[in-house]
Amino acid sequence: PSHDAGALLCNAGLFHTLAAARPGTRAGFIHVPMLPGQLGAGEHEPTMPSEESERAVRAAISALH
């Protein structure tokens, strides 16, 4: 059981992607944190500005080539 919907959905997305991938195909999951403005009052979760998230995703994709 999971008490964290994010972990449950992220893991399910990854495992379904890996199961559906053809042998020899690279597959993965990139978790993108919430934007700083998405937190509610008093919440303390990791966030990342959209520009930084975009740079990180582009770098991860570039590393696959």
Whole-number radius of gyration? 15 Å
Order of helices and strands: HH
Low-confidence spans: none
Secondary structure: helix percent: 40-55%
Major beta sheet, specifics? none
Mean pLDDT: 86
Outline the structure in words.
- The protein has 65 residues and is an all-alpha fold.
- Helices cover 46% and strands 0% of the residues.
- The protein is built from 2 helices and no strands.
- It has helices at residues 5-20, 50-63.
- It is flat, with a radius of gyration of 15 Å.
Summarize the topology:
Blueprint (H helix, E strand, L loop, with lengths): L4 H16 L29 H14 L2
List its traits.
flat, 46% helix, 2 helices, 65 residues
Kindly summarize this structure in a few lines.
The protein has helices at residues 5-20, 50-63. The chain is mostly helical and 65 residues long. The chain is flat and about 45 Å long.
